[in-house]
Amino acid sequence: MRKPVARRRVALHLGALAALLVMLYPLAWLLATSLKPADEVIASLDLLPGSLEWSNYSTALDGVNDVSVWRLLSNSLLIAGGAVVGNVLSCSLAAYAFARLRFRFRGPLFAFMIATIMLPHHAVLIPQYIIFNQLGMVNTYWPLILPKFLATEAFFVFLIVQFMRGLPRELEEAARIDGCGPFRSFFLVILPLTRPALITTAIFTFIWTWNDFFTQLIYLFSPEKFTLTLALRSFVDASSTSAFGPMFAMSVIALLPIVLFFLAFQRFLVEGMANSGIKG
């Protein structure tokens, strides 16, 4: 009996290892290509470079359009950080109202909010652009940050609602007896207990905002306001030779903050997703 069980375990581990190698291959290819000379990027299919071209990283660190990579990195961090703060604050407030408060039309409003998840982003892009253009906010960071403070991400509202519905109501009742109103109960009692869901919201918001290219391309025109995502496009020129080596090197640099952010909060991500899916 032990041999079949041992064989199944070995087969399971080998299958998991094979799947891991398949998933990690694009990352390995990116790292290897970032060190390849320009003639090997397109002409060679080998994973390992024939010679290491460290100048790709020095070119990437110089930036694009006379804008250093550190300026591009700070722009990306500013937008992603503002989006994280806005989503965590506004979505948690909206979720608290739907999950813990009693008010008229709460059910229909919650259903309408959930229905907006199926609304394509491109369907609201033009009306949003017209509004921000009339407000004089085009070519600024406001169109990329301000909507996050208005609880426009229904997915995160739903995620936090599911978590808050599993919290005991006795906690709020005890706080109400001590004289706490809805806002004090939210900030002092509910908000600290929803940390896993909030960290899950922060992680996904950071990753999605950091990798967002289309929205940033629509609203940002000046090179000094570009993010790392937009700067990658500057290495590819349809009318001349494309600098693929430095482009992949900057891709590696742009990937590092996401990896570090994810590794730092991975434990809370798993906990938040598990609890939000079970409770409620």
UniProtKB/TrEMBL annotation:
CDD domains attached to this UniProt entry: TM_PBP2
Keyword line: Cell membrane, Membrane, Transmembrane, Transmembrane helix, Transport
The organism's place on the tree of life at top rank: Bacteria
Compartments, record wording: Cell membrane
Swiss-Prot/TrEMBL GO biological process terms: transmembrane transport
Annotated ranges, domain ABC transmembrane type-1: 73-265
GO cellular component, one term: plasma membrane
Bilayer topology annotation: Multi-pass membrane protein
Regions that span the bilayer: 12-32, 77-98, 110-132, 144-164, 185-210, 243-265
SUPFAM superfamilies, sorted: MetI-like
Predominant location: membrane
Similarity comment text for this entry: Belongs to the binding-protein-dependent transport system permease family.
Protein name (record): Sugar ABC transporter permease
Gene source species: Streptomyces dioscori
